[in-house]
Design brief:
364 residues; Quinone Oxidoreductase, Chain A, domain 1; 7-stranded mixed sheet; 6-stranded parallel sheet; 10 helices; 20 strands; 27% helix; binds zinc ion
């Protein structure tokens, strides 16, 4: 099978032939039709911060068609259209029973046991690491059924691929994490793919005003098209005073999609009395947020970290697909460029262009 393999961190993706196992147990073999280029995969490919064993097949935003099923896979049939998600959940722990599958205690239950089973991916008999249990930068992906969600066949593959990571995160953070209500004011710091999805969800939730903040005018223009009522270029304007003025003293919800000490602090200061600071993005390196306890208490603020939209991924992906098909959630506008699997390096380079929202592999 053709796959884009990371041989050495920092040396890009190399198209190669590798072996993929037959589906066992609850595994599903998916013919990949679209795979989104997420920044997290680029970080893993260039710096490999988690020290994943190399060689490695990344790609955690995939959509495709089910072509074979393991003997105990029951959630899908051959021919179903599915979307992958990096959230790994066992279905048996207390968190899973509670519906908090994104906080599962045994994510490893979705993977093969390296001590006992032969690997899903291999080359010349040696294991090839499958990124996040998905490995979508390949012609096929062998995935535990819990990491897949079916989507209607009329949903095109390229926008479908975006559902499992960035869109789920942006939309879920607004609906599940912050529970934005009609009329509430929202600020979104960072107008990349996740930020635009958060703006879309804020619009759907009836929020007003919706202020998008970024340092690039191109991204801010796109945010307006997605539903931002106001935009602030924080390279030129003090974002905190601008947002406080636009919202009459501070917003009800501030989402930080960037994840630096500076943006988290802006989020804290641009919220009003009783406001929520929702930390969604994470910049590499680790940053700290300084909080004044008396101010936090007296201003009745809450600070929370949100991962993968803080909701059950199947429910979230199904809801987003439905909103897209009803014309309420713009996704086609996020797909700026479609590339071939062989052109991953160029595709990632294109993401540096502020006019490019997302890049998706559609030819394998
Ligand atoms: Zn991602
Ligand atoms: Zn679990």
């Amino acid at each position: 099978m053709k796959a884009a393999v990371v041989e050495k961190a920092g040396e890009g993706f190399v198209l190669q032939d590798i072996d993929i196992a037959e589906p066992a147990d609850r595994e599903v073999l998916v013919e990949v039709r679209a795979a989104g280029l997420c920044h997290t995969d680029l970080t893993l490919a260039t710096h490999n911060p988690g020290r994943l064993p190399l060689p490695l097949v990344l790609g955690h935003e995939l959509a495709g068609v089910v072509v074979a099923l393991g003997p105990r896979a029951a959630a899908f049939g051959v021919g179903d259209h599915v979307v992958g998600c990096l959230v790994q959940w066992c279905g048996a722990c207390a968190a899973c029973h509670d519906g908090r599958t994104y906080q599962c205690a045994h994510p490893e239950a979705t993977l093969r046991d390296p001590a006992r089973d032969r690997p899903r991916l291999s080359r010349d008999g040696e294991p090839v690491t499958q990124g996040m249990g998905l490995g979508g930068f390949a012609r096929h992906a062998l995935v535990h059924e819990n990491q897949l969600t079916s989507v209607p066949r009329e949903m095109p593959f390229a926008p479908a691929a975006l559902l499992g990571c960035g869109v789920l995160t942006g939309v879920g953070s607004v609906f599940n994490g912050a529970r934005v209500a009609p009329g509430e004011s929202v600020a979104v710091i960072g107008a990349g793919g996740v930020g635009l999805s958060a703006v879309s969800a804020a619009r759907l939730a009836g929020a007003s005003p919706i202020v998008a903040i970024d340092v690039q005018d191109g991204k801010l223009e796109r945010a307006r098209a997605f539903g931002a009522t106001h935009v602030v270029n924080s390279a030129r304007t003090d974002a905190v005073s601008a947002v406080r003025e636009l919202s009459g003293g501070g917003v009800r919800h501030a989402f930080d999609l960037v994840g630096t000490a500076a943006t988290a602090d802006q989020a804290l200061r641009m919220t009003g009395l009783g406001g929520g600071i929702h930390l969604v993005g994470l910049a590499p390196g680790g940053a700290e947020l300084r909080l004044s306890l008396p101010r936090l208490l007296l201003e009745q603020k809450r600070v929370q970290g949100l991962i993968m939209g803080a909701g059950d991924p199947r429910r979230g992906i199904t809801r987003c697909a439905d909103l897209y098909l009803r014309g309420e959630l713009p996704l086609d506008e996020l797909v700026s460029r479609r590339i071939a699997l062989a052109d991953l390096d160029a595709g990632y380079a294109a993401l540096a262009d502020p006019d490019v929202a997302r890049v998706v592999v559609t030819s394998f």
